[in-house]
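ok new one. same drill as before - structure tokens go in, u give me an amino acid for every spot. 241 of them this time. try not to just spam alanines like last time pls lmao
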């Protein structure tokens, strides 16, 4: 985005910087927040207070924001459930049959609903929701084959034409509440919609995204970068709208 706008992106303090962002590619941030230039044009450092994106932390925020969550009790849940690391970006989800004996329950993983996010052709798909300063400039739809549903491997991706056709007003408000609870100013959210219930589940919050997803064609990737860059510019330089 910075390159598209002709801006310098650096970790070296600059006078009169347009803004700042905390960008640490870890699940939990324990380092002391940096001291930012006093004359920075933006009074905020984005994601400055976003210090914990564990699945358990996301679950608590999700229940508050949406009124429901994904967690199940592995000892009492009767049926298939997803088990995966509490850490972010592990992509190690597996299906297990519940209930489990207590001695087989692990403390460093989460146990969640088996969300049916298949389309009519049988492919699994995720929504990748781009969140920039309180706005959603675009949503990607990423498709996966069944054997890779819990990985980051996509076979196809596209930009959805209209955010309002994907998310209801109540879901938009819930996402706004969720990002507020988790102190997220800039992130990409991975979300699944359950085929049976119609419910939306935000399964990951990624405050250090790396750009358009694999599987997106070049023209769409360029469009995505342009739209995200314009949104970023509008947030940091409101007078430019």
């Amino acid at each position: 985005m910075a390159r598209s706008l002709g801006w310098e992106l650096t970790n070296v303090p600059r006078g009169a910087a347009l803004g700042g962002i905390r960008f640490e590619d870890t699940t939990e941030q324990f380092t002391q927040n940096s001291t930012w230039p006093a004359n920075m044009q933006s009074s905020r450092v984005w994601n400055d207070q976003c210090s914990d994106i564990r699945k358990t932390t996301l679950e608590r925020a999700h229940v508050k924001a949406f009124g429901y969550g994904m967690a199940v009790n592995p000892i009492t849940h009767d049926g298939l459930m997803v088990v995966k690391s509490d850490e972010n970006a592990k992509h190690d989800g597996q299906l297990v049959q519940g209930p489990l004996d207590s001695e087989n329950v692990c403390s460093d993983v989460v146990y969640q609903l088996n969300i049916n996010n298949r389309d009519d052709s049988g492919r699994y798909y995720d929504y990748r929701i781009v969140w920039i300063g309180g706005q959603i400039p675009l949503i990607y739809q990423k498709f996966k084959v069944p054997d890779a549903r819990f990985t980051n491997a996509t076979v196809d991706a596209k930009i959805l034409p209209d955010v309002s056709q994907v998310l209801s007003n109540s879901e938009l408000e819930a996402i706004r509440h969720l990002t507020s609870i988790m102190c997220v100013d800039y992130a990409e959210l991975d979300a699944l919609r359950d085929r049976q219930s119609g419910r939306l589940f935000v399964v990951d919050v990624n405050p250090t995204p790396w750009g358009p997803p694999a599987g997106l064609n070049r023209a769409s990737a360029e469009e995505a970068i342009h739209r995200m860059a314009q949104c970023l510019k509008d947030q940091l330089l409101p007078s430019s709208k």
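The first helix runs from residue 2 to 5. and btw Residues 71-114 form one domain.
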